[in-house]
Each structure stands twice: as structure tokens, then as C-alpha cells.
Amino acid sequence: MDKIKYRSGGAEVSQEDYKRAHQEILQTDKWIIDGFGCMETLWLRLDEADTLVYVDLPL
Hints:
This protein is mostly helical and 59 residues long.
């Protein structure tokens, strides 16, 4: 998620650019997404995903 949500150097991209990049990823045949993003795009990923890996590390 960081690669599509932030520019090199840490500046955040616009929400529109982020959503566009996210949608382009979901339209491909195979993808792996690591991270959360935002609630709106989370639900889109969950609808398209065939596998979900949840890593629950102890604090």
C-alpha cells in the first residue's frame, strides 16, 4: 500500500490518484497487497481477494 499511497520521499498522493492506482491493481489477474490503505479500498480488496492472510503479531 505504501508504494501507491505515498511518493518517494514520503509525500502522500491525492486520494484520487491512490484510488486509481488501487483499482488498476485489482483489475490485474494476480496481485498481492500488503497493508491497510483506507476503509473504502479495503472492502474492494476483500470482495476481489481469494485468499486473506492475517498476521497477528504480539505487541
